[in-house]
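During the reporting period the student researcher (J.K.) took over the structure-prediction task from the postdoctoral fellow and processed the backlog of single-chain submissions. One of the processed entries is reproduced below for the supervisory committee.
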Amino acid sequence: MINTNHKKSIKRVQNYKELLIKKLDKKDFDLLPSSFDITGEIVVLEIKPELIRYEKEVAKAILKTYKNIRTVLKKTGVHEGEFRTQKLKYLAGKKTKETIYKENNIRLKLNVEKVYFSPRLSTERKRIYEQIKPNEIILVMFSGVGPYPIVISKNTKATEIYAIEKNKIAHKYAKENLELNKIKNIKLFLGDVRKIVPKLKIKFDRILMPLPRGAEDFIDLAISVSKKGSIIHFYDFEHETEFHLAEEKVKKACKKNKIKFKIINLVKCGQYSPGKYRLCVDFEIK
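J.K. obtained the following structure tokens:
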């Protein structure tokens, strides 16, 4: 995310808003986005309804200000459907929705409209790989274009990483990204985790569950392929007044499966919407 409200250093950094001062009245000027998501060379804007008539001017100002940006898109809907994708409208620059994104020593090719991907989770992905010990065998459910498995492969001495994704387009990009990053220890599977995981017949040292929504429905499955000492990373979305509900979902699943466990950590991974946050519950099977 680029924050355009930073303090100016001695060497003046131009703010895209400065190019719009004379084109908008104060009421509209105050509605300009102060921050936006950037994935590779693509910026995705959230434009308030009052500013729609100025959206192309805003996009052009961003292109002039940030030289590393080649394309500006805007959100036209919320994340929806089974794969939590989001419709985006082209505003300015190179007419594409595909880009190469870099983080944590890796590169990822993806289409920002066709797959679910969050650049805001780069810090969380680093937090996960810093916990991984040599020779771990890891399962990543809902692996998308491969950010978690590839970051883990590049930055740890994990033995094998199994990655499962149901979205055919995301899976296609994941295969390309293995080649792009010259990865050898990741095994990709296309399909439903409920059907694929039992067939693997493996007990994993670590299991990641980065589903955009509804991961609690798969805790039972994760437990079924865990062993004593396994670490499970369960992701959830909760309101800031109800963070305890994420832990309750873990407790309920473990109790149902008669599994002893220990919650290691409850981590806030970023804000999803006003008052609502993405959380990760790290827990160990005892």
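The committee noted the following: The chain is about 25% helix and 30% strand.
J.K. will present the remaining backlog at the next meeting.
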